[in-house]
Amino acid sequence: PRVVKASASAEQFAPSNIALCKYWGKRDRELNLPINASLSVSLDYLGSHTRLIPVDGQRDEVWLNGQQLQPGARFSQKVSAFIDLFRRDQDLYFRVETRNNIPTAAGLASSASGFAALTLALNDALALDLPPEQLSILARMGSGSACRSLFTGFVQWNMGLREDGMDSHGIPLARTWPGFCIGLVEIDAAEKATDSRSGMQRTVETAHLYQSWPLQAAADLSKLQQAIEARDFELLGQTAEQNALSMHATMIASWPPLLYWQPESVAAMQKVWQLRAEGMPVYFTMDAGPNLKLLFQREDRDALLKHFPGLETVEPFGP
Ligand code: 2P0
Question: Longest Cα pair distance anywhere in the chain, in angstroms?
Fold first, then answer.
């Protein structure tokens, strides 16, 4: 982007997002260009608030949920490297304060909302005035899935064909779905041992099963588009659940094997299958962590809460 010397404080929010068709595998690791297109739904009020304050020092200060991180911490380095894209060779440093109202690094995509909010805040602090698609491209370079968190509702991330990545960004699918619910089943909020970045790399490099993933993702993407267009909840749920399990199958087939599930994750999946057998249309999706995200409709919320007490529910399109 065009860099302006003057900088000001800024504060922005971006939502987390849950992919219904997952991003798993890169064709370019520097630019975060995906091997497959993905489709997500943004989580309304759940996400990251990021504040930027210019500082006089010679490095950025990164704060996460009220605590200052060591300059060598992984998140701190990712944030500074990302701000380098904006500062280039200028002496322009920030105190970056990020607050997530979702558990950090528990497979609830806090890096997506974090880099999206940081991109929006940098756009303000540096008075860049960039259009949403360009902000989405920049956010993608911080964390791939962040390009989807620039928008609300259903969002598609096209893989793009260009080598420079200028056609690989989020696009909002202007479709609403009142009563569509996402429930967060927290199995374990602890930071995971293998982050998505190295997990997907390992899968691409070592799992023969990964060969089938782009085909699965392409087929699922068109089914999801159809389901959203027709508000066909069963088609949406089935497709999202099969997509998530297919992604996890490629991870399990990697070497060393990559399994994010815990015994409680499997128990929760079996509970969902049992409820479905009893006639309740509820489905799940899972990311690079042990937690489940349930997909269901508002009319089933009370019944579902009996089986998943304390379930945090988000209605991305309202009741
Ligand atoms: C997704 N995930 O589509 C998939 C499903 C995790 C599982 O996008 O290396 O943190 O920063 O581009 O975006 C998480 O991957 O990875 C992710 P990088 P990112 O939501």
Answer: 62
Cα 210 to averaged position of ligand 1 atoms, centre (Å): 16
Q: What percent of the chain has pLDDT over 90?
A: 85
The SS3 assignment for 289 reads coil
Q: Is 111 in the pocket of ligand 1 (CB under 6 A)?
A: yes
Q: 288 C-alpha to center of ligand 1: Å?
A: 8
Residue owning tokens 């500074």: 80
Q: What is the pTM of this model?
A: 0.95
Structure tokens at 55: 């500082």
- Tell me which residue of 167, 168, 293 sits closest to 241, measured CA to CA: 293
For ligand 1, the distance from its centroid to the CA atom of residue 144, given in whole angstroms, is 6
Q: Is there an atom of ligand 1 within 6 Å of 196 CB?
A: yes
Three-class SS state of 153: coil
Three-class DSSP category at 59: coil
- The whole-number pLDDT of residue 105 equals 44
Task: Give the residue, by CA position, lying nearest to ligand 1 atom 20.
Answer: 19
Q: Is the pLDDT of residue 139 over 70?
A: yes
pLDDT digits (tens, 9 = 90+) for 48-94: 999 999 998 899 999 999 999 998 988 899 999 999 999 987 889 99
